[in-house]
Amino acid sequence: MDIKTKITDALKQAMRDKDATRLLTLRLVNAAIKDREISLRGTDKESAGVSEDDVLAILGKMVKQRQESARAYEEGARLELAQNELDEIKIIEDFLPKKLSDDETISAIDDAISASGASSIRDMGKVMGVLKSKYMGRLDFGKVGPMVKDRLG
Q1: What CATH number does residue 87 fall under?
Q2: 83 lies in which domain range?
């Protein structure tokens, strides 16, 4: 079962359960996916629709946005709003693949470096491309970038 179907099924279940927070969050996720589908209209990708990687990227972006919002709310002493954002993150992360551990991340970076033939910091884009193609949604690329830099530098 693909991620879009899981999200739709979870949305229906949230309606049945009258779970307002989950329902609101899943509606936002669905809206983001539909927005991406609309933006693909008229392109060559239209026939394929939104891919799994696109959905994972959307979910990852939504988690990152909510983390930033929660941080801003905490700094502004708006703890109830920060908690709402954290609750939404948990709901969205239910649909993301399991994150790699630190050891697995280092191993993935080393594999990507050898697969891309990277030898210097100039090859960082190649390494990141390999990582994004294999581990989208499973790595925090904000943290991985500096780790790749350290390995290549």
Answers
A1: 1.10.1510.10
A2: 3-93
Question: Of 95, 135, 141, 92, which Cα lies nearest the Cα of 111?
Answer: 135
Distance in angstroms (rounded) separating the CA atoms of residues 127 and 50: 25
The amino acid that residue 72 corresponds to is: A
**Per-residue pLDDT tens over the stretch 3-21:** 899 999 999 999 999 999 9
Query: Residue 48 contacts by C-beta under 8 Å, 6 or more apart in sequence?
Result: none
Tell me if the pTM is above 0.90: no
Mean pLDDT on 111-116: 88
82 with 133, same domain?
Answer: no
29 and 75 fall within a common domain = yes
Q: At 33, list the tokens.
A: 């996916």
> Among the residues of 18-123, which ranges form H helices?
20-40, 52-75, 79-93, 102-116
Q: Which residue has the tokens 């948990």?
A: 90
